[in-house]
Amino acid sequence: MTSAAPIIGVTGGIASGKSTVAAMFAELGIPWVDADLVARDIVAPGEPALDAIVARYGNSLLDAHGELQRRALRDIIFADDNEREWLESVTHPRIRQRLHERLETIRQGAAPYGLLVSPLLFETDQVSLVDRRLVIDVPETLQVARTQARDEVSETQAHAILAAQMPRQERLALADDVIENHGDMTALKAQVAKLDAGYRQLFDGTHQEHSL
Ligand code: ADP
């Protein structure tokens, strides 16, 4: 019997390339869990976290389909730290539990390793769910440009989003591995392929930890 497959935590600032990198690993047969999607799943209709949110703020937060209007909720917690703390106390443990379940499926599966892709890997206790940390690093000017292009926000808004996130150097200091995403897609793909080969060797079927 082989031991469980390790999980690599993939993180980076806004528009650093997390989704793009995850899709490239997926093409190489590596399964992944997206923390953003799980954060949405746990407030879907019928979920206890949504019931708690509606009990506190009322039905006006729901749209005609009973779905949470996330923007309205963001407005409430943006204006009030106590409400933000309350919301996090309701959502974070559930996100963590759901992530744990999804990652456990990967750990018991046939893939040599899996990914947890999360913008808040280091800002939450999600980091304790992973065995290794991969940071996607990108110069801020490029990050602002890619955010603007993808999300249709102004340069000022893009800078404001960056300023609210963990500083680049702090994130890098927590990395075991780094992808430099300042080149084109071909350069990015080459780095993913090299890391994948390294991880496969590192976790060579026995899932033992060696140094890369
Ligand atoms: P994240 O998931 O970290 O927010 P994405 O993977 O969505 O970032 O990438 C942000 C944007 O930048 C997307 O529009 C993506 O297509 C683009 N992008 C990512 N990497 C590159 C690259 N190496 N060259 C050009 N565009 C890129």
UniProtKB/TrEMBL annotation:
Top-level enzyme category: transferase
InterPro entries tied to this protein: Depp_CoAkinase, P-loop_NTPase
Record SUPFAM superfamilies: P-loop containing nucleoside triphosphate hydrolases (SSF52540)
Residues binding ATP, per UniProt: A15, S16, G17, K18, S19, T20
Pfam families hit by this protein: CoaE (PF01121)
Top-level taxon: Bacteria
Gene Ontology biological-process entries: coenzyme A biosynthetic process
UniProt-annotated location(s): Cytoplasm
Pathway(s) per entry: Cofactor biosynthesis; coenzyme A biosynthesis; CoA from (R)-pantothenate: step 5/5
This protein's GO CC annotations: cytoplasm
GO MF, any single term: ATP binding
Keyword annotations from UniProtKB, A to Z: ATP-binding, Coenzyme A biosynthesis, Cytoplasm, Kinase, Nucleotide-binding, Transferase
Documented EC number(s): 2.7.1.24
Entries under PANTHER family matching the protein: BIFUNCTIONAL COENZYME A SYNTHASE-RELATED (PTHR10695:SF46), DEPHOSPHO-COA KINASE-RELATED (PTHR10695)
Function as written in the Swiss-Prot or TrEMBL entry: Catalyzes the phosphorylation of the 3'-hydroxyl group of dephosphocoenzyme A to form coenzyme A.
The protein's name in its UniProt record: Dephospho-CoA kinase
Species this chain originates from: Chromohalobacter japonicus
Underlying gene: coaE
